[in-house]
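Researcher: Let's run the pair from yesterday's discussion. Sequence first, then tokens, for each.
Model: Starting with the first of the pair.
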Amino acid sequence: MGIPGLNLFLGIWEGSHESRSGYWLRWWNPEGELLLWSEERAQQERLRADREYDRAQRLAEKLRQAGIALDDEE
């Protein structure tokens, strides 16, 4: 079932949410991708930020090993 003009489709998703498991009505886009709840988006963003932080730390360590001083270490 879709909403004309909005390109949103209502479909069934099986999983857990708010400590309840079962089937849920969820919104999907035309490409068949599930539209995330706000908690899911926040969790994805935290994971992305953690990966970027780890990457920045590894890069900073490589620069230090190469003898390059970082701005915050002067």
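Model: Moving on to the second of the pair.
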Amino acid sequence: MATPPPAFAPDPQQVPPPVAPATPVKSGKGKKVLKVIALLVAAVVVKFGISYFFNSPVHAEAGDCVQVTGSDTDPDVSTRDCGDKDANYKVVKVVDDTFDVKACGSSGEAALAQQWEQEKFVLCLAPVK
């Protein structure tokens, strides 16, 4: 009968390091959920981002013509060429750093207070003739 070899403690320098378990592969459902979330985020950015840039107040300069539509409490202002049939006001003066529509004094027949982020200003307007 043969005797079994003696039990030796393994040399720690010769033992291979433990292998990390494989990362699980994402299922098809996980990828679909991520795509849906990405589409929702993109939709929110488009909805609010575009409206933020396109519905921003117009900081026109004196001499520019604008079209003012909407109500007194929610006006919509857009710059126009002074020859454009839709231009209904000409900016005669811009008063920065105020909401006081009386700052126009006798300049123009109408005043429109606007704010863009931290910037506030009043457009003094006269009808286009």
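Researcher: Give me one sentence on the second I can quote.
Model: DSSP finds one helix and five strands in the chain.
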